[in-house]
Each structure stands twice: as structure tokens, then as C-alpha cells.
Amino acid sequence: MNNQKGFTLLEVLVxxxxxxxGLLAVASMQTTALQGNTxxxxxxxxxxxxxxMLDRIRVNGGVTPVNYNGIDTNNNCATPVxxxxxxxxxxxxxxxxxxxxxxxxxxxxxGVVSVTADSPIAKTAAISVTITWGxxxxxxxxxxxxxxxxxx
Length: 152
Fold this sequence. Notes:
Layout: H1 9-61, H2 87-98, E1 110-117, E2 124-133, E3 139-148
Antiparallel strand pairs: 1-2, 2-3
Helix pairs in contact: 1-2
């Protein structure tokens, strides 16, 4: 018995059990990391698309950004008063970008624009762009800004 070499079967089974628990923990951590990365990517895309619409309003809205009020991509860019160029073009292009299936859009995305004239002070407009997306759980990003409208 003094010449024992190697491991017993029980020691090998305990070692395999410990390694298995460690590998399961690593696999679980990897899944959580992938879900977090996907969520962060979607939020980044939503913020970029909301900023894009804000920029379109700044450039094309000019002194009448209130024309963009009520844009809703769920109703094919129609508003109660109807859209005209360049508002209709901006809305249509923005809707296409929101629903882009090449990986640059969001699943089940909806964009809504709200513009309040003379708010918070005269000759300004409070603009709010909200993007909602998600097929199973709903996520929302809202960007708000104030734009001057006095330059006529």
C-alpha cells in the first residue's frame, strides 16, 4: 500500500463534478452577456433613429416644425391634417429606417413625434420623438429638445 500512484475513482468523479458546475456557470454568464449586448444594441439604434428624426425636423422644419406634430409611423405617416413635402418624405423615410430588416432597424418599431409650438417660451417649439419597439417585451426611448422658430 505504500506504493500508491494516481487518483481514485471517487476523486475523479468529484473533480468532474466541480468542473461541470464551473462550465455551467460560464455558459449561463455567456447567455446573459449576449442578451445584454442585444439590448444595448437595440437602445443605441433607437437613440440614433430618434436623433435622425430630430435632425430632419431641425433641417426641414424651418420656422414651422409644428408641421411634424402627430407623425405616427403605425398609420403609414398619415396625420389628421395630412402630410405634405418635406414632412411626408421625412416620415416615410424614417418609417422605412425604423422597420429596416437588414439589422439596422428594430423589431415591431413605432415612431411618434410630438411638437408643441411656443413652448416653453414664445418663438420656440418643444419637440419630443418617441420610439417604441419589441415583439415580446416593449421598450421605449424618448428624446426631447427645444428648437427656436423666430427666424422668418
